[in-house]
Amino acid sequence: MGGGADRPLVIDSHAHIFPDLAGAGGYATVAEHRLYIQRILVGHVQPYRRAGSHEIVSDPGMLWDLSQPGISGYRDVGLEVSSYGRFTWQKDGHAYYLEYMPPWLRTQEMPAEFLRALMDHAGVDVAVLQNDHVYGDLNHYFAEAVADYPDRFIGLIQVDETEADRDDQIARLHEGTRSGLRGLFYKPYTFFRVDFRQSFDAPRFSAFWSEVARLRLPTYWDLVPIPGNAKADYLNELGRFAAWSERYPEIPCLMVQALPTRLFFSDGRLEIPALLRRLVTERRLLLELALPIVWARWHEYPYAQLVPLIRALYDAFGSEALVWGSDIPNIGRYCTYRQSHSYLRDTCPFLTEADLRAILGENLRRFFRL
Predict the structure, then answer these.
(1) Within this chain, do residues 57 and 124 fall inside the same structural domain, yes or no?
(2) Judgement on whether residues 217 and 308 belong to the same structural domain of the protein
(3) Which residues fall within 8 angstroms of residue 247, CB to CB, at 6 or more apart?
(4) Structural domain contains residue 344
(5) What is the DSSP letter of 48?
(6) Which of 131, 170, 274, 316 is most buried, by CB atoms within 10 Å?
(7) How far, in Å, CA of 202 to CA of 194, rounded?
(8) Predicted TM-score (pTM) of this structure
(9) Domain coverage including residue 321
């Protein structure tokens, strides 16, 4: 893996490949896959729109009973995976949609060859394939991509977080590493399937985490505010993570999208929780800068409005704690793949060439021991 003699290595921390989202995607049934898709649309940054008129519809409980954020709140709305990036459903005789993927994604699939071509065009050498349930149960799919393009992709392992104490889930860690996958993608939000009655720090999961530690698997944490969407919910999850981290300090960890910045950034000022400051400093966590995917619905490239946010993270932790991620192909809703990282150079003059080299590749190279 290398960036060539004339430029440093560029690694995207946040990329996706997937078979057609309309199918089962590796799950036992299409319905199981659709459940994950429907839940992720609740409270999504993209708005619900009425088909035909395309008007934004303010009905946050359309897809889920928000008084029951777990599986008990599921609403059967006949969710369908449409073309050109859209998910569609019906309510009270009207059709609605959410533009989840960019409209240039005619069929809802992103094969490895397509992502590789986008990487070539954008000057990205390596992409980390995040293994989120919404895209499918994709360990084998990722392993094939890594085998075909070992110098271009770093694949992460998916498990069923709610049943990670079972032998078959622990076995998935070993199967993943044998097939060339290099880390674990872990999503506590998946506990919606059991109405959030338990979480990742339950004693029953100690054998699973001990095996992750023994294998020294770099772990991506998609830590979000649950079961609600408030600061207190996030801080509670962060507290759980801090206690977990004391038990498993040898597991290298990265926080996907750093923290929920829409809750902590306002009036040009980022509030960094004191516990996160301590964890990054003492635990050497990596924080992912995947900001356009969160903010570009409201701001145009080159995202000058995000400079205070980036500066706050840089001043607090330095470039050695930050990594760049795009969320390709989703980011195509707002900007080009190249723009998803070039804005850092174009709008942040305080980032030196050494800083950019660290953020755009070197920190991840060390994280995965490439």
Answers:
(1) no
(2) yes
(3) 209
(4) yes
(5) P
(6) 131
(7) 13
(8) 0.97
(9) 11-18+110-367
